[in-house]
Design a protein that fits this description.
globular, binds zinc ion, alpha/beta, single chain, TIM Barrel, 11 helices, 41% helix
């Protein structure tokens, strides 16, 4: 099995849906260790606690920054999160966390963070653009909106999260964003059983193999299913290696030029049982 680097990894709790779901830094490291994931770009979970408003967002951002500080070899860069309804104070918090905490941008989740990938994110994106940063955008409806962002904010590198969860999204991303050089893609939650009109080979043939990356979408998804698809796909080994971790290493090095991946296994801080790491309802982790 190849080493993997995960560009789509949430830490914290999603409390806005029942049952709640989440993971600590330690449980994240345990899951990574048990499945040969050698590093990740962490970001907060969407739908986190908001009783204190933007102060809660600040705490969520600081959790990611602390993980990066404590484990720079595994978490070389991290992302914050934004909530559209925080408006200017949310923009200010993003500026703060990039300046003070060293996060390189933000992740956001349309359904859980109150936006539709339209103009309401421009003020947040402008902050990231001024730092030549990174944004992980979850696909929502047409990827045309992300292509428009990519054009409007050329200094930002975008990752489209779980670009191939269904055939419609897969084909739309190819059509709208295939030619956008500052848009990269992760294959989190790629379901098994896609036919050749939208399988991994089709994705590589249409998006190329330079900007396609592995993503886990922890703590929601048993990402070992996606690893298995990559390992067994009818693709050259060299291309599998690029998707598994080499492209992600190149992406990270845009932001941390001196960072090199540590290929030895992670030692997690706690011995989690198999059930604690992998209990799931279908592909959905608890
Ligand atoms: Zn996600």
């Amino acid at each position: 099995m190849h080493p993997y680097f995960d560009v789509h990894c949430h830490i914290g709790m999603t409390v806005s849906r029942a049952p709640v779901v989440g993971q600590s830094v330690g449980r994240c490291l345990a899951r990574m260790a048990s499945a040969n994931v050698i590093g990740a770009i962490p970001c907060p979970t969407a739908g986190g606690p908001q009783a204190r408003g933007v102060l809660d967002t600040r705490t969520q951002n600081e959790t990611i920054a602390n993980a990066c500080r404590l484990h720079p070899e595994r978490f070389p860069i991290g992302l914050g999160i934004v909530e559209v309804r925080h408006e200017q104070v949310g923009v200010d918090e993003l500026e703060r966390t990039m300046q003070e905490d060293g996060l390189v941008g933000f992740a956001c989740h349309p359904a859980l963070s109150g936006h539709s990938l339209g103009g309401e994110l421009h003020a947040f994106l402008e902050v990231v653009a001024m730092h030549d940063g990174l944004c992980l955008l979850h696909q929502a409806g047409s990827t045309r909106n992300i292509a428009a962002y990519a054009k409007r904010f050329p200094s930002i590198t975008f990752i489209i999260g779980h670009v191939s969860m269904n055939k419609g999204g897969h084909l739309d991303a190819i059509e709208q964003c295939g030619m956008c050089e500052n848009v990269w893609f992760d294959v989190a939650q790629k379901p098994e059983g896609a036919d050749e009109s939208w399988d991994l080979v089709h994705l590589v043939n249409n998006l190329g193999s330079d900007r396609l990356m592995f993503g886990s979408d922890l703590p929601y998804y048993d990402f070992r299913l996606v690893q298995n698809q990559i390992e067994t796909a009818r693709l050259d080994d060299e291309i599998k290696e690029r998707i598994a971790y080499q492209n992600a290493v190149r992406l990270v090095q845009q932001f941390r030029q001196d960072w090199l991946p540590t290929l030895t296994p992670i030692t997690p801080p706690q011995v989690y049982s198999q059930e604690e790491m992998w209990d799931a309802n279908g592909a959905r982790l608890y």
